[in-house]
Amino acid sequence: MADDANPISEAVAKASAYLTEHPEEAHYRDSFARAHLESGLVVEVTGPGGERLTTDMPRGIGGSASATSPGWLFRAATASCVASLIAIRAAATGATLRSADVEVDSESDDRGILGLDSSIPAGALSMKVVVAIDAPGLGRAAVEALATWAFEHCPVTDTIGRAVPISLEVR
């Protein structure tokens, strides 16, 4: 993994320098994800660059469990984002990173998604992110600082952790 640090470090330095000189370029609208209900609860999701994935709900809620659920993809997005930010920060600071493992789980109450109790949220009630970093030469405090920086700068964990304006438009 240490072999990947140089291109990451160079890319981060280049992007940081460019955005420091051109702050107006830093703010943009993210690309869309378009979902199409195929059949039952199977959904095909596509993006503008040819991205594609299929989701399905678990059998217990009427799905066929033929594909990954949206909730698991949300946790996967969180885990992969934090892991990526660990690598980015390690490269930017010159730390040698042998490996980074991130596990994310959440606690939910299905009464919320089914609308059985209006006091229960439809989404996760809590989430936990567990990080294991193998970085030779870094002490415990530096490893914790690396994990904390990644957690705090990950767009997914940041979005989860604060109220983000969201709107619904029906066409």
Superfamily (CATH H level) name of the domain at 69-161: K homology (KH) domain
| CATH architecture level-2 label of the domain at 69-161 | 2-Layer Sandwich
Secondary structure: number of strands: 5
Major sheet: arrangement of strands: 1-2-3
Average pLDDT taken over every residue:
94
The CATH topology name of the domain at 69-161 reads GMP Synthetase, Chain A, domain 3
Write the H/E string, N to C. HEEEHEHEHH
User: What is the share of helical residues?
Assistant: 25-40%
Share of residues in strands: 15-25%
Annotate the secondary structure layout.
Layout: H1 5-21, E1 34-39, E2 42-46, E3 52-55, H2 70-93, E4 99-107, H3 110-113, E5 126-134, H4 140-153, H5 155-161
Antiparallel strand pairs: 1-2, 2-3, 4-5
Helix pairs in contact: 1-2, 2-4
Overall description:
With 171 residues, the protein is α+β, with helices and mostly antiparallel strands. It has a domain at 69-161: K homology (KH) domain (GMP Synthetase, Chain A, domain 3, 2-Layer Sandwich). Helices cover 39% and strands 19% of the residues. The protein has 5 helices and 5 strands; from the N terminus they run H-E-E-E-H-E-H-E-H-H. It has a 3-stranded antiparallel beta sheet, with no helix packed on it. Strands 4-5 form a two-stranded antiparallel sheet. The N and C termini lie far apart (47 Å). The relative contact order is 0.13.
